[in-house]
């Protein structure tokens, strides 16, 4: 059922709007079937309804959202339409700075921090008319899904957690609490939560999206990317946020050829041993040439190189924080405190040798990447490390569901999501997007929504440390 059609059933639209994709919502706004202000009210209600269970929101930006929505509606009334994100609500991972609102980095050490700067990615979205409704959970200092207010859950199975530090963007998008969100990845923080929560998400080419105003772990690894309903939505958002950030020396203007215009019949796509063959077969049926594929490289310490690089660069940012023992209050003592202590004793020569090996790895992968793209597991740890070190893009694509392990005898609607990754060469994000769109054009896995309103006869909501009514704000109110 299309989103335009369900407007005939206005009373049901509030519940069904969470199913809509950006382009559908954008068309409703453009044609004045719904206002941005109405959308904001709907999504703020959804955020406050589901957050007590999912713990995926840190701050609801109600005041700012209403202001931006009224501005979007006012422009449209004057005949000014800014494009497909005009008036569309969204969320930001809470390592991204927005003036007058807390940017907590998910950590108790910084939970009252207000950075009165506009992150570059926030500026880009604001200029496109998008409306910020929430700062979403980042795992503490962008590490896993534990944060100072709890631990973010997977909407498809609330007894397990979202995994990865972009837990808030993944869970909130999956649950229809926002149409899209911006997350980040240094080593799996887009791919893992996207796969766990069953959403479409893109880790773009390194340097495609500027990072000014964003907490950094490792300047040579950090990337920002969209969590969306579909590859089409990812395309729209990426086209908005990409570009040269003058204050981020690693960012570049990388042309994004139109993914909607790619002739996929002219592409050769590889598939690895762990690829979801349904994706391979669908693309093959649409005329894509598919071949078995494996990336070959001789560097045998990929995971070690990533750990050395990430931990040493992170320590450079948080040296004083650890030296002054503020890490004693950290939410998960077996995470950053332990990693940074290890990084402190890494010999300089070992770090330099790791970077030399990384350069060799990049050269070997470039030579070995002989196909236009390849399909493979998105959460294989070796491949996650490899992709982040080399900086090539991957889009995570939902491909189905399976029953959870040991389901209740009385039945449950909880599911385990199945996903795969479509990888492209650096600066060829449009190829991965085009292939994902081709797959999603004839499948419906990405349109399924988790059962958080009806878990099943024997499912019990997990204990939540702080329940909120629908009239209250998110767990931590805006400043």
Describe this structure in words.
- Keywords: Signal.
- Residues 1-19 form the signal peptide.
- Residues 38-303 form the Amidase domain.
- It comes from Populus deltoides (Eastern poplar).
- GO terms for molecular function: glutaminyl-tRNA synthase (glutamine-hydrolyzing) activity.
- With 479 residues, this protein is of the alpha/beta class.
- The chain contains 15 helices and 15 strands.
- It has helices at residues 3-6, 10-16, 22-30, 36-54, 62-77, 120-127, 167-174, 191-197, 231-241, 277-285, 302-323, 336-344, 348-368, 381-390, 429-440, and strands at residues 57-60, 89-93, 131-136, 146-147, 150-151, 153-154, 157-161, 181-185, 200-203, 223-228, 268-271, 289-292, 373-376, 394-403, 415-424.
- The strands form three sheets. It has an eleven-stranded mixed sheet, sandwiched between helices. Strands 4-5 form a two-stranded antiparallel sheet.
- The two termini are 39 Å apart.
- The model is unreliable at 5-9 and 464-473 (pLDDT under 50).
Describe the global form.
Answer: globular
Termini distance? 39 Å
| Sequence stretches where pLDDT stays below 50 over 5 or more residues | 5-9, 464-473
Derived from helix and strand composition plus strand pairing, the structural class reads: alpha/beta
Radius of gyration: 21 Å
Pfam family, one: Amidase
Domain Amidase: 38-303
GO molecular function, one term: glutaminyl-tRNA synthase (glutamine-hydrolyzing) activity
Signal peptide: 1-19
């Amino acid at each position: 059922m299309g989103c335009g059609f369900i407007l005939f059933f206005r009373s049901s639209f509030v519940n069904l709007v969470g199913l809509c994709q950006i382009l559908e919502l954008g068309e409703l706004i453009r044609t004045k079937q719904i206002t941005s202000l109405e959308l904001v009210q709907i999504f703020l209600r959804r955020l406050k309804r589901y957050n007590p269970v999912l713990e995926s929101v840190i701050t609801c930006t109600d005041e700012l959202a209403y202001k931006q929505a009224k501005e979007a509606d006012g422009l449209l009334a004057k005949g000014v339409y800014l494009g497909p994100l005009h008036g569309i609500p969204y969320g930001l991972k809470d390592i991204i700075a927005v003036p007058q609102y807390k940017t907590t980095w998910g950590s108790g050490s910084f939970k009252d921090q207000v950075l009165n700067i506009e992150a570059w990615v926030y500026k880009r979205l604001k200029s496109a008319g998008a409306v910020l409704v929430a700062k979403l959970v980042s795992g503490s200092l962008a590490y896993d899904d534990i944060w100072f207010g709890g631990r973010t859950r997977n909407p498809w199975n609330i007894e397990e957690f979202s995994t990865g530090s972009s837990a808030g963007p993944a869970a909130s998008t999956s649950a229809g609490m926002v149409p899209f969100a911006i997350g980040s990845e240094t080593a799996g923080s887009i791919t893992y939560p996207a796969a766990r929560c069953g959403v479409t998400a893109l880790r773009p080419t390194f340097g495609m999206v500027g990072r000014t105003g964003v907490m950094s772990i490792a300047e040579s690894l950090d990337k920002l990317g969209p969590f969306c309903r579909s590859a089409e939505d990812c395309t729209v958002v990426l086209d908005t946020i990409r570009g040269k950030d003058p204050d981020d020396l690693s960012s570049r203007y990388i042309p994004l050829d139109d993914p909607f215009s790619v002739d996929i019949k002219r592409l050769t796509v590889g598939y690895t041993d762990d690829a979801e063959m349904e994706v391979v077969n669908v693309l093959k049926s649409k005329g894509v040439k598919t071949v078995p594929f494996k990336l070959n490289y001789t560097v045998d310490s990929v995971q070690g190189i990533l750990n050395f690089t990430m931990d040493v660069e992170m320590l450079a940012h948080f040296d004083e924080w650890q030296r002054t023992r503020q890490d004693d209050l950290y939410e998960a003592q077996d995470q950053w405190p332990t990693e940074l202590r290890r990084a402190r004793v890494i010999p300089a020569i070992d770090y330099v040798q790791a970077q030399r090996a990384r350069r060799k790895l990049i050269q070997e992968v470039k030579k070995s990447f002989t196909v236009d793209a390849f399909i493979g597991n998105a959460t294989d740890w070796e491949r996650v490390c490899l992709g982040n070190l080399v900086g090539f893009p991957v889009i995570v694509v939902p491909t189905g569901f399976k029953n959870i392990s040991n389901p209740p005898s009385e039945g449950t609607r909880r599911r385990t999501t199945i996903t795969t990754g479509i990888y492209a060469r650096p600066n060829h994000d449009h190829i991965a997007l085009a292939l994902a769109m081709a797959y999603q054009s004839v499948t419906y896995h990405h349109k399924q929504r988790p059962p958080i309103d009806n878990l099943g006869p024997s499912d019990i909501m997990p204990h939540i440390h702080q329940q909120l009514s629908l009239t209250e704000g998110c767990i931590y109110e805006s400043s």
